[in-house]
Amino acid sequence: MKQTALGLSACAAALIAGTPALAQDAAPTRAEMQAELEELRGRVQTLEALVERLVGSQAAVAEQAEAANATAEAAQVAANEASEAVAAQPRITHGAATRVRTEDGWDFRPFGRLMVDAASVSDPGNLNDPGLGFSSTIRRVRLGAEGAIPGGFEYKIEVDFADNEVEVTDAILSYGAGDVEFTIGQHNTFQGLEELTSSRFISFMERAAFTDAFGFQRRVGVSVNYANGDFRWDGGVFTTNIDDLADDSVNAWSFDTRAVYSPELNGTQLHFGGSLHHRDLRDNPGARYRQRPAYGGTDTRFINTGALTVAEETSYGLEAAVIHGPFHAVAEGHWLNADIPGMANPTFFGGYVEAGYFLTGGDSRGYSGGRFNRTRPARTVDEGGIGAVQLNARYDRLDLSDAGIVGGEQDLYGLSLIWTPIDYARFILNYSHIAYDDAAIALPNGDTDYSVDVIGARAEFDF
Fold first, then answer.
1. Ramachandran region of residue 244, left (φ > 0), alpha (ψ -120 to 50) or beta?
2. Would you state the pLDDT for residue 12?
3. Secondary structure of the chain as H, E, C letters
4. CA separation for the pair 22, 37 (Å, rounded)
5. CATH class of the 114-137+186-212+219-462 domain in this structure
6. CA-CA distance, 17 to 29, in Å (whole number)?
7. ∠ CA(107), CA(110), CA(116), 5° rounding?
């Protein structure tokens, strides 16, 4: 309107300026005055027409602007509705396995693994044991799913189908609150670095001897985890394995805890940890400690305490590791004291030291969350490379003789060669030389000090 007023003023000024002055030296005649008046009326009419046209144009512009604003608002509303509709649909992503996530917090991801083993265990002296010689086995066939539930909960369930049996390995529900996470269900009892590292990422076909000999296994319980920066602590109270819950005579319980400090200094990953465990077997005392010769496909056990009336177990472990580029080294020790009523309480020991090196440039052993993790080759075979090739050496000792219990001692010297062509597949070659003292199985000549050689291979993939 201000521009309109200025325009009218300008027009009026032009009209006045263009109108002949009425006051002159000679008085105009009536006819001249009438002509000037008619001319002035004509100019006024022209000015009015111009004003009407200007006002009409402004109204049209205003109507067009209002219509454009309405159209833009409608388009934005439609876009928002379309965006919300798309967000409400399940999101499906494809990696090693398909993952489904919804806007309201549901998350579902299947996973699994297959491990096929073959090995030859030498006969130390005409034992004619069916567990010796060559054999092959499906070591693990596992399928499971994990994900999230609305409200901040997470779940995981995994089942193993090896040996034509169905065994629940993990079945947990967890809830996170900041740096703290609570877990209930069947899960690991924080035994140590080797045991907590997935079988997909260990350096040999089998874990260190003490992990099986001391009966490490998943159990049903409640635990809490605190993780902040380089520090991690886990602790929980557990009952027994899910397969034994239906047996009323098995009512054991345990307290298990582990702490880890894992700083990274100048590109070098360090790991320091320790664990403590106490288990009360209550109304069903009894345990035995034994181990296979570095191959899960045989039932022969050259080292074995036999059944003991153990009422309680107390054990603790120490662990340390370092990863620097292609090199890694790790060491663990674990001591288990068995409380046997009416007898001296033996303390058994197991431990190992290991070193490994990647022969392919740019590759390094994975690590996260206080355990070893997946190795991702710098150049996989589908990218024109050969994948990752790693050479490992290990010394592994297990001593099951103490306080009058003679379960035997073993010293294992092992080499492994691992080829990882892609992130989710590995091939392993193993050689182990195992020396036994006071073995549980005597040779036909009565000798209990001898050695066994094991050559094995594994093909595995996971998703």
1. alpha
2. 41
3. CHHHHHHHHHHHHHHHHHCCCCCCCCCCCHHHHHHHHHHHHHHHHHHHHHHHHHHHHHHHHHHHHHHHHHHHHHHHHHHHHHHHHHHHCCEEEECCCEEEECCCCCEEEEEEEEEEEEEEECCCCCCCCCCCEEEEEEEEEEEEEEEEECCCEEEEEEEECHHHCCEEEEEEEEEEECCEEEEEEEECCCCCHHHHCCCCCCCCCCCCHHHHHCCCCCEEEEEEEEEECCEEEEEEEECCCHHHCCCCCCCCEEEEEEEEECCEECCEEEEEEEEEEEEECCCCCCECCEECCCCCCCCCCCEECCCECCCEEEEEEEEEEEEECCEEEEEEEEEEEEECCCCCCCEEEEEEEEEEEECCCCCCCEEECCEEECCCCCCCHHHCCCCEEEEEEEEEEEEEEECCEEEEEEEEEEEEEEEEEECCEEEEEEEEEEEEECCCCCCCCCCCCEEEEEEEEEEEEEC
4. 11
5. mainly beta
6. 22
7. 160
So what's the pLDDT on residue 20? 43
Side-chain-side CA neighbours of 362 within 13 Å: the count stands at 8
Q: Going by DSSP bridges, is the β-strand pair 219-228/253-261 parallel, antiparallel, or unpaired? A: unpaired
**The predicted structure's pLDDT at residue 28:** 66
Which residue, among 374, 364, 392, has the nearest Cα to 264 in the 3D structure?
A: 364
Residue owning tokens 């994975």: 366
Match 């590995």 to its residue by tokens.
426
Is the Cβ–Cβ distance between 448 and 442 less than 8 Å?
Answer: yes
Which residues of the chain are in CATH 2.40.160.10 domains?
114-137+186-212+219-462
Q: Is the pTM of this model over 0.90?
A: no
pLDDT of amino acid 25:
47
pLDDT at position 240 is 94
Burial string for 188-209 (b: 16+ CB within 10 Å, else e) reads bbbbbbbbbbebbbbbbbbbbb
Which regions of the chain are under pLDDT 70?
1-28, 44, 47-48, 50-51, 54-62, 64-65, 67-68, 72, 75, 78-89, 248-249
- The CA distance from 410 to 398, in Å, is 5
Q: How far apart are alpha carbons 166 and 143 in whole angstroms? A: 11
pLDDT digits (tens, 9 = 90+) for 234-252: 999 999 999 988 786 678 9
